[in-house]
Amino acid sequence: MARRKSSQQWLARQRRDPYVKQAQAAGWRSRAAYKLLELDQRDSILKQGLCVLDLGAAPGGWSQVAAQRVGSSGRVIAVDVLEMPPLPGVEFLCGDLRDEHLLAELTTVLGSTRVDLVLSDMAPNMSGVQVVDQARTLVLGELVCDLLDDLLRPGGTLVLKTFHGEGFDELMRGLKGRFRRVVSRKPAASRAQSREVYLVAQDFRG
Length: 206
What we know:
Elements lengths: L1 H15 L1 H9 L6 H11 L7 E5 L5 H10 L4 E6 L9 E5 L5 H11 L4 E6 L9 H22 E12 L4 H9 L2 E7 L10 E9 L2
Parallel strand pairs: 1-2, 1-4, 2-3, 4-5
Antiparallel strand pairs: 5-7, 6-7
């Protein structure tokens, strides 16, 4: 019964959400596209010709924006544990970043190339227990950060979703030690009641 009530509340919220309506009208796969559009407007993270790795990509809103901005001279590689319908200009890998087979596949796809930009909109399955969800989110953030030395070129950029709470300050300090500029952003399309923020870390020291 509680799950049914929660689903009904989610559907009602979706129907009221102006970003959902805008995304549908504009042809974006999700309202999350507007978060990346704002981040790009503020921090100029997407440019023609960049190689972009989009983690936690499904259903594809961020990949759509990235592919549009990097153009035909760029490249977008999307990764998610869920299947994602094909998108023009986007290469998709289905799998878990903790799986060695997925990492081997990603290494093969990239070859000797290192990416210019890592996007991570990943979030855990939410339990509703704040301390548990916070811990799971930090684990995902640490997983992404552990991959940077192998995937991100020196001077590159990371955009990482996380939540305010225990461990947030430590994550910020860690990124500031590896990037020359790190800022925290709360896009307008991020729901007010959500604790999510996006860390934009630029100029990777490598």
